[in-house]
Design brief:
Elements: E1 4-6, E2 11-13, E3 23-25, E4 29-36, E5 41-49, E6 57-62, E7 67-70, E8 81-88, E9 94-104, E10 110-120
């Protein structure tokens, strides 16, 4: 059985089954454009199970606590689609570039998604 251990974290990511499948994202990077400071924004990464076995998103990790993912914990049947929602907390002004790592039962075991944009300083915070 395939298992990945993360020393920086206190958990392991192990597939429930040894059956691997294939995932296809519609887009791997989203430019969120200009965001108003203090107003979170959510975007969605659409994906499809293009393999022959159920797809299980086991874990989604972000490069910053300001980025929160949301995904279905249920297996995705072959041919079915789903989405990973990512919310960015636009607390601080300036440009941002964040990585979202998706761990799943595919051959390489993970996919990297990216969001970027710029938070404009709020008039109230000048």
């Amino acid at each position: 059985m395939f298992c990945v251990w993360f020393f920086a974290e206190d958990y392991s990511v192990c597939p429930i089954s040894t059956q691997v499948t294939q995932i296809k994202f519609d887009i791997m990077e989203i430019d969120m454009g200009q965001l108003e400071q203090g107003k979170p924004k959510t975007v969605s990464f659409q994906y499809k199970n293009i393999g022959e076995h159920p797809l299980l998103i086991q874990h989604v990790e972000t490069s910053c606590g300001c980025t929160q993912p949301e995904w279905t914990k249920q297996p995705i049947k072959p041919g079915d689609s789903a989405e990973i929602k990512v919310s960015y907390d636009a607390k601080y002004s300036g440009r941002f570039f964040k990585t979202i790592t998706v761990f799943c039962n595919t051959l390489n075991g993970m996919n990297e998604l990216k969001i970027k944009g710029e938070v404009k300083l709020s008039v109230n915070n000048k």
